[in-house]
Amino acid sequence: MAWGQVTPIQAQSSGPTVLVVPDFSWDRDQGVVRVPLTVAGPTGAVLDFEFDLIVDTSKFLPVSLTSDGTITYGGLWTISMRRTAQNVFHIEGFSGQGLTGRNGPLLYVVFQRTVATGGSTSSLQVQNLIWNEGSPASRVDRQGSITILPIRITGGFKYGDTGRPISGGIAKYQTVNLTQIGQVTSVSDGSFVIETSERAQYRVDYSKQPYSDLRNGLSPLDAARAHQCSMDYRTDCDPVVADVSRNGKITSHDAALMARWLLTHTQSPDSFVGYWYCVPPSLTFNLQFDYQIASTQCLLVGDVTKNWSAAPDTREATTSVGVSLPERVTTHPGVTTTLPITLTGNQMEAVLLRFETETQVVGFGTPEGWSVTPQGEGFMLLGDGPADQIVFDLQFLAQTSGDLTITEVWGNENESQSMDESVQIEVILYNLFLPSLQRQVQ
Predict the structure, then answer these.
(1) Which pLDDT tens digit goes with each residue over 362-382?
(2) What share of the chain is helix, strand, coil (3-state, %, to 5)?
(3) What span, in angstroms and rounded, lies between the C-alpha atoms of 397 and 202?
(4) C-alpha span between 49 and 92 (Å, rounded)
(5) What band does 118 get if pLDDT is binned at 50, 70 and 90?
(6) 370 bridge partner residues
(7) If you compute the radius of gyration of the chain from its CA atoms, what whole number of angstroms results?
(8) Coil/strand/helix, residue 44
(9) Residue 317 pLDDT exceeds 80
(10) Cβ(30)–Cβ(64) under 8 Å?
(11) Which residue(s) pair with 348 in the sheet?
(12) Torsion angle of C-alpha atoms 224, 230, 236, 242, degrees rounded to 10
């Protein structure tokens, strides 16, 4: 019998049959995964295929093939894989029945990870793809990759026990042997995410940059509360925020340090006003899989009332403090003159005033239960309890005539108010004439 020329089987397809290689990621705790190679455009006339699969075997090793759930499923296809080089695997499949004519997974490649670190990635490529010894035409639509997802550490920052989220919190992390080191910051909802590749023992340190994100956290009322707790008029001051000198107790020195910072924004050497304090400051744990940390609680040192807000400055723009001054004061050079000032408001416990003047302020007269902290051209009044009106005296020396102007008033935790209340100071000069003494001639 003589064999005649055989006409190749032609696939009834309008275009090339396309194979798609995916980007595939698996979870950190999985050791074996199935990666689909998907085909589009075949018909039942496709009886066989072959191609080379290329992958970095130092990270991922193809160990077997499976057709379960694919268009070659049904036990009618023979599919084999053989390693031909360090990172190359040759795959072939054939069947007398041909493909079913549906698009979908051609087969699944079963991979085993050969690296322990998360975040490991390797390109996953198919080369030399052939259908039916070359007909229909073949094309690899895209080359993919295979990745082990990094291990995720999630946590958050909250303001004390208020539940308010803190953005800009810093979480520094490192392994015990310092093979992984880095830091992340919390976002608007207070959360942060650390992605790392190594399973190891980790330490996370919590902090926030001093003097950052103060918002409405520090106010005259905080200084008043520290003073009231120092005098035992109150007992609800948290030492974490009220003991700004960190000497172990709340004293009027703490109130003075708060007042100094509010008046000058100058930090004293023994003051921690404006620093952030986090509990716990650090956490150590053994990381094997994704790990969620309970939110750490941070507070702003000096915020005795704990009114710091997660939103931008939430103090109400209010004119709740009124200032009453006389229109004109007459004084004499070198003589101490008293200028009466009346403040009216609602439940005032602390008031900060700034002023401009060419006179020299030399003293104050305050009502019972009130104290004063001066600093340059500004001062703060602190009360033992709330009041709706405060009458006090400003004592000054004036060498020449001029004005004394209150430029800013800040009551309790309301927004500070710009002011233009001024008083004209007139200096009166007295000339002293002594009559001449004549000696009487006898």
Answers:
(1) 999 999 999 999 998 999 999
(2) 5, 50, 45
(3) 64
(4) 6
(5) confident
(6) 383
(7) 40
(8) coil
(9) no
(10) no
(11) 387
(12) 70
